[in-house]
Design brief:
alpha+beta, 9 strands, elongated
Length: 241
């Protein structure tokens, strides 16, 4: 299982130092979140701050199994995301609590002033979505307080920036994204059985319009690749345990 780390400038700045953007793609992340029955049938929704995002459906299911307690109901939602790559290092960006993730992002800075609590990085520029741009600057440009938002997202529970360094994930990343995102809801047959998963009746109201718009404006996404033949054995089944 590949772990995606929440981006932290203090931790990842050294690792990203000197790294530049080689490519960018739209992809799906699998967002695992949960609700739990409480007193008087009150429904409580919990959004994880750690380990909520996954590269594939199977990883998300494993984390749900590890976190399950009596009464929990889990959801796994496909979230349109942007992946920026430099060698084996990848930065993933998505947005929760939005029907159009990243739709408020601007290709060019909306201001020349940086946030008051920030320090201008070496190689700072007013447009980061170009080949050769510093990867650290790309990540920072998506922070909710950056100067690259036409419509600023909420300071919390909105934009999610993730760091990963692994060669394994190449085969897991689902791209390009063409169909409407899906959402699964768990079902339990008892504590001795694996959770079952069914497509959510309410569906996933998130669209990829914002993510695709970011890449279209930046002209970083490669031309559409031929879609490979469908392999049913690799498709997440709504009824699989």
């Amino acid at each position: 299982m590949t772990e995606l780390e929440l981006f932290n400038q203090d931790i990842h700045e050294v690792k990203l130092g000197g790294r530049t953007v080689e490519s960018a793609h739209a992809c799906y992340l699998y967002y695992m979140h949960t609700g739990r029955n409480a007193w008087h049938s009150t429904w409580v929704m919990k959004y994880y701050k750690r380990n909520c995002m996954n590269l594939c459906f199977e990883d998300a299911k494993q984390k749900a199994e590890a976190d399950r307690v009596q009464g929990s109901v889990f959801y796994i939602s496909q979230l349109p995301s942007v992946m920026f790559q430099s060698g084996q290092i990848r930065i993933f960006v998505t947005e929760i609590n939005s029907s159009f993730p990243l739709s408020g992002y601007s290709l060019r800075a909306q201001s020349l002033e940086i946030p008051s609590d920030s320090v201008r990085i070496n190689g700072a520029r007013n447009c980061y979505l170009v080949e050769g741009a510093p990867l650290l600057g790309v990540a920072l440009s998506f922070r909710p307080d950056s100067r690259f938002w036409r419509v600023r997202p909420a300071p919390r529970n909105s934009v999610i920036i993730l760091y990963s360094e692994s060669s394994r994930e190449t085969e897991l990343i689902e791209r390009p994204i063409r169909r409407s995102p899906l959402e699964w809801k768990s079902s339990s047959s008892g504590p001795t059985y694996f959770l079952g998963w069914n497509l959510s009746k309410n569906g996933n109201r998130v669209t990829a319009r914002g993510v695709n718009g970011v890449l279209k404006l930046a002209n970083l996404d490669p031309p559409d690749e031929p879609r490979p033949p469908r392999d049913p054995s690799r498709e997440p089944s709504p009824l699989s345990p």
